[in-house]
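Form 12-C: Joint structure prediction
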Amino acid sequence: MAAPRTERQTKWLIAGPPLVFLLAFFLLPSLIMALASLRYPGEFGGLAPLAARAGEEAGLTFENYALFFSDWIYAQIFAKSVGIAALTTLACLVMAYPLAMLIARSPKRRRDFMVLLVILPFASNFLVRVYAWMIILGPLDLLFSRFAVIVGMVYVHLPFMILPLYTNLEKHDPALLDAAQDLGANAWHTFWRVTFPLSLPGVFSGAALVFIPVLGMFAVPELLGGKDDWMVGNMIKESFLGTRDWPFGSMLSIMLTLAVLALAAAAALLARKGAPGA
Amino acid sequence: MPLLEIRNVTRRFGALTAIDNVSLSIEPGEFFTLLGPSGCGKTTLLRMIAGFDAPDAGSIWLDGNDLADKPPEQRPVHTVFQSYALFPHMSVARNIAFPLKMAGKTAAEIEAKVRQALAEVHLEDKGESYPHELSGGQKQRVALARALVNRPRMLLLDEPLGALDAKLREQMEIELISLQRDVGITFIFVTHAQPEALALSHRIAVMRDGRVEQMDTPSRLYGFPVNRFVADFIGNCTMLPATVVETGAHGTRLAVQALGEVMAPTAERARAGQEGVLAIRPEQVHIMAAAAAHELKNHFTGVVRDFLYIGDVTTYVVELANGTRIEALLANSAPGRAQFFQLDQPVKVAWRHDAGIFLAD
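Section 2 - Result
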């Protein structure tokens, strides 16, 4: 059969370049990092050689992981990071939802302009925008606090929540809202029983686009946070650039990835349980 | 007391008057249809009854209460939407349970009523299905069940059969009639399809440009249209421009351009000299061989220009000597091959003196 084969070839041709790119620059580095997390640190930073030499620690070890579990402080920083990410996600959701609804229900010709306004902040540099908050929060005596960190995080990530929500809400059939009202639902019930459940895919993708980057973010807590606002990202950055303990930094990165995967799996499980018909 | 009263309602959208001083009243238990071409205002009127739109002038009364300040969710009126508008994230049973939940019914009551509603529309085994798993006809039935489950005072149907294919539409028409009879709820049905309106309704209001042209039973609308628009919109009609010569108790004498005198039934308001048209339905016109004998007063000769074979009947288009075209309908009920006229064959068309109707301009 000639036709299906050409079709398959076309599919590979399309999928090939991004696949090769991700294999080379995502999967391979991840494996290198996983391996690095099982090695000893080098004497002057970097990694110790794999082959053992006399008087040196070498080869593979779980010591880095053991270290993570040996002191509460690491788990605490992880928990705090998850907390900050969750709070940021929630704040973004609460602020983005009404705005996304407003845009989705505006006349068609005005929507594109409003979406443009939402992504306009990306036109200026990320660090400039964070520094701007230092200028605003400094005189108010709010700088270097948890509050400042969350404000900065929300500010930077809000568009990532608005856009998927808007994309979802815009597709809703307005007749469904009429139907709900017609069948006796007031505005509150119409929202919670029709609009919100139908927007859950948008809520989930928006939440993922905010939660995951915030979890690994180090620039915002470093610039706006105080000494108590040290997050996982700061720890990782410090391991590589400060203490130059690459294996420990690699271990933290791997743990962060595992934490994200575990949370995503839990969310997916919860979503399936909550989904109708399950 | 009528169930619903629409009193002098007007609705404007900018320069356009969508509804122009419409008044009508609907009795309990009626199957009432708003019929008209698109843009005639029928859907606007329906939306005002449901509460999604408000009149600029006039009022709408249900059971003797003015509905002006009642939002849609507080009106005991439910709508079946053109697109069905089933909630895609809810099963069929939960869709049907929705209005009951909103009305604060208990779980046990909801379950019993949902089961009964599913039975009413013959979907007993589809309660756990989701809307995307249903066919068009099944979605239609779910929409009906959902709108009827808590027994509203009135059901509004906005072109609900428009999305169905012809065979299914006919089946749904029959189901709608029996459903309406069984539940005894007043239906207000909006459509632009006149066969649908004739088949379903107790009474029909024919609308054009925001006004009601005629309101009557299907057979009276078909048999006694009040003007050219209604005659043309409901069924097929041949219109012959005519002038009234003489009126009398035994009939009206008309002068039809280039055809001569034609007898028509007595028209109440016709006066001698009045201009108008003689409207004749194709099934009132007999078609026969040019030499055939008959006793009909109104008869003319012409040739067959076109015919449309539909199976049960054939419609012939006969062109008379003066170029006028008259449609004649012949049932193909004779055994074997029915008398079948050929293109360009000379024929005679004739109709009884009491057929047709004179419509003044």
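Section 3 - Comments
Chain A touches chain B at residues 173, 175-176, 178-186, 189, 193-194, 197-198, 276-277 (CB under 8 Å). The mean pLDDT of chain A is 87.
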